[in-house]
Structures are given as C-alpha cells and as structure tokens.
C-alpha cells in the first residue's frame, strides 16, 4: 500500500507539473516527471543505456570516416618536344638513388636532421622511375634531341655522351628547404671521363606537402639544366675515327738456296814428263 501511495503521489505531482507547463506563465522550466521523485530517478536510469548506445554508434561512425591519402608525383615542369630526330646521342644512366628514398612514404626532414613519415601523403609510384623520366624529358628538351635514352641501351646504340648520376639526398620538411645532393660524370665516346661535379642545391617552399614536392621537382630541373650545359662542349668535339692497324705482310717462305759453283784455285803446279 505504501508503494501504491508513493506512485499516486508521484502521479499527482506529475499532473501538477504538466498543468504548470501548459497553463503557467509561458516560461519553459521543466516538463517531465517532478525532479527528485521516484519516477524521475527511474527514467534517468533508463536513459543511461540509450546514451551509451548513441555514444558507441557515433564513435563507430567517426572511426569509419577515413581521410583519403594524397598521392604525389614529381613536377617535371613544361618541357618542350625535341624537334631533331638525329640529334646528339645521350645515354642517361646508370642513375642511382639513395636507399632511404626507395619507398612510397613521403619523408619529412625535421629541424634536428631526423626523417619522419608524412601522415597525409605518399608517392604515387616508384620515385626512382619518376626521377629517371623527369631527367630524360628535361635533357631531351634542352639538347633538342630525340636520341636521349635510359640505360641500359640497345645493342646498336652508340652514345656520343653518357651521363652517370648518383643522388644521395632529395628531401624537405615543413620548415626545412628542399635539398638535393648529387654527383654526375660525363663520359665521351671512348668511355673517358670528360667532366665530373658534386652538386648541392636548395629550394625554398611554402611548407605544405604539395609545395615540398613541387620544390623537389624544381631541384631536379635545375640539375638537368646544369648537366645539359656541360654536355654541349663535349658534343662539339669532332669524332676521330680509330686508326687501323697496319696489316702485317706474310713472310715469304724461305726458299732453299743452291750454292753457285766457283773455280777453286790452288798453288799446286802440274809437271809433265
């Protein structure tokens, strides 16, 4: 009977509260079960699982939203199309790239010199292949020659100049400039080293990943310009045909010599009787 009395008392209080919401002064205070009543506590208890359920659903929805990773390629600029189909024959390669660049991750150089993986970007393909293609197109355009090929060349290709390149550093950071460290060598038709140089280039950027990749591409374009400038003096040198070795004449077979007869004189005198 006591529980029934409590229920009826609560219902009476609830009815009075509803009447206050409907016929009160118009100011909304609280339209529900009376605060502090037994039914109010029971409703709060029932609301708790619902709140937890909604929180879990929203959490799963947040986890399911995946930000797409940006893919980057080196910017080769706007190289023109070479017009001469019989221009200078250039063999580009081998081109070696540092081991730490042999990955898809876009690396970030920190102020203390360390490298960290970029959380919002990676290379769209093989970085070494992108470097080869960028340098190939830049050299072909600057030398105006369709005869610029990547190593290894076909058997019947005789280069006028061979470019051997080693890239030991190509990176940047949000607060660090793009840096390129490399060494190139130029070999003539005989395979002799005609020129060699160590290169250190820097390029500033705005800080974003896209700006960093663009700056790295500009460094490679500057490298190609430097190499093409060094190639031209070598290509102007006349090509000397190798001198043919004199053909050794076959020695005639020694013929047997017949001694010639010659009179023999002696001091003996012949006496006749």
UniProtKB/TrEMBL annotation:
UniProt cross-references to Pfam families, sorted A to Z: ABC_trans_aux
InterPro entries cross-referenced by the UniProt entry: ABC_trans_aux
Keywords: Lipoprotein
Domain ABC-type transport auxiliary lipoprotein component: 72-227
Name this polypeptide is given: Putative Lipoprotein
The organism's taxonomic lineage, starting at the top: Bacteria, Pseudomonadati, Pseudomonadota, Gammaproteobacteria, Pseudomonadales
């Amino acid at each position: 009977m006591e529980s029934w009395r409590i229920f009826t008392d609560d219902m009476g209080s609830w009815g009075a509260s509803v009447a206050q919401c409907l016929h009160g002064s118009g100011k909304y205070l609280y339209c529900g079960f009376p605060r502090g009543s037994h039914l109010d506590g029971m409703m709060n208890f029932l609301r708790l699982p619902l709140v937890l359920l909604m929180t879990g659903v929203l959490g799963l929805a947040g986890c399911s939203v995946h930000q797409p990773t940006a893919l980057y390629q080196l910017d080769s600029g706007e190289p023109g199309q070479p017009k001469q189909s019989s221009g200078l024959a250039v063999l580009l390669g081998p081109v070696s790239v540092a081991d730490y660049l042999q990955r898809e991750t876009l690396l970030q150089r920190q102020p203390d010199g360390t490298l960290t993986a970029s959380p919002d970007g990676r290379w769209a393909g093989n970085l070494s292949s992108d470097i080869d293609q960028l340098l190939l197109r830049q050299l072909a355009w600057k030398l105006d020659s369709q005869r610029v090929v990547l190593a290894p060349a076909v058997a019947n290709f005789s280069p006028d100049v061979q470019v051997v390149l080693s890239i030991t550093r190509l990176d940047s950071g949000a607060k660090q400039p793009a840096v390129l460290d490399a060494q190139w060598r130029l070999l003539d038709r005989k395979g002799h080293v005609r020129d060699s140089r160590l290169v250190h280039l820097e390029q500033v950027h705005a800080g974003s990943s896209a700006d960093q990749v663009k700056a790295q591409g500009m460094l490679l374009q500057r490298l190609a310009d430097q190499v093409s400038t060094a190639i031209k003096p070598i290509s102007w040198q006349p090509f000397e045909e190798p001198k043919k070795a004199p053909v050794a004449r076959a020695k005639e077979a020694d013929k047997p010599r017949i001694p010639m007869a010659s009179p023999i004189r002696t001091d003996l005198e012949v006496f006749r009787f």
